[in-house]
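Re: your question about TMV resistance protein N-like

S., sorry for the slow reply, the queue was backed up all week. Below is exactly what I fed in.
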Amino acid sequence: MVWLVAASFLLNRHEASLVENIAQHIHRKLVPKLPSCTENLVGISSNVEEVHKLVGMQLNDVRFIGIWGMGGIGKSTIARAVYEAIQ
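Result:
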């Protein structure tokens, strides 16, 4: 199966592109897209918007945001929602 993918891409592309396409093909087979677990959450939209503003994706510099607090208050959920929004 992989050799068929390799043969089809090798005719018109560089080797680096071939390797990337094979890796993407294998990744799609091994890691299917999981449904979003951050849809329809209640009470975190303002926090997600604030973190999204802090990240400032329109800027070309590197941003690092820390989210801290007590366990169980939704830090990972907020981070996951922001990631899904900018992905």
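The mean pLDDT is 78. The radius of gyration is 19 Å.

Happy to talk it through on Thursday.
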